[in-house]
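Thread title: Can someone regenerate the structure for this chain?

I was given the following input by a collaborator and told the matching structure tokens would be attached. They weren't. Posting the sequence so someone can regenerate them.
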Amino acid sequence: MQLSLGLRAALLSVLLFVLFIAAWEAAVSGGGKAADLDPEYAKLMGATAVTGASAMPGPGEIGLKLWQHVTDPFYDNGPNDKGIGIQLGFSILRVLLGFGLAVILAIPLGFLIGMSPLVYKALDPYIQVLKPISPLAWMPLALYTIKDSNLSAIFVIFICSVWPMLLNTAFGVASVRREWLNVARTLEVGQLRTAIAVILPAAAPTIMTGVRISIGIAWLVIVAAEMLVGGTGIGYFVWNEWNNLSITNVIIAILAIGVIGMVLDQVLGWFARLVAYQE
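Best answer:
Regenerated them for you:
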């Protein structure tokens, strides 16, 4: 009996996961030769430095710590000790605010650029100059002018989310088939109705591609931005746990970042499938 492609892929994924866990466990379980360390330094670094064991936590330790976070994700023991659920909530909120502002600006402006060659030629030099700038390069200017770390992080998310949506929207609108526009013109359909009934549905798949790219970049950037601004958020959580030498929590945060990024992309992918069409 021939197994389906999906089932074979799932079995292969499980096999790769098991092999990865086994290799990880084997790599961290073997004891090595203890380093000849200064006693005070060895005391600071803990048993791993004295015994020669790996300082990297194994899968079992990660699993136990992950279960603690899952069962109590919203505890709050002060500014530097909050549950991972709270930290992720702050990060998601900042991303959604910055991303939402970018949607409000980028899609209408991209529409205008795509429909008007004059506006495209006028704005293209500014776009080409601003687009390659790293979002984090705006952070010092944002902190200086806005004087609020939370709003500065939201601004950085906004600025990094704008360009993919703007360019994809402009490209999608400009690529709408001339025949469809000519039919609308022949039927004397007004410009606004043509934009809503003809151009928007035709350009929607390309626009959604830009939206998915933007949310991915926004989620990447928020981690680095929160490392800089501090306070709350999953980026700050990673940096704070690194300062506490808790590699276990750093690994768990990395896993959480990956899972949330996948969920955001899947949600937008579902919207993209809703607006997709076949000619």
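Residues 57-275 form a domain with the MetI-like fold fold (CATH 1.10.3720.10).
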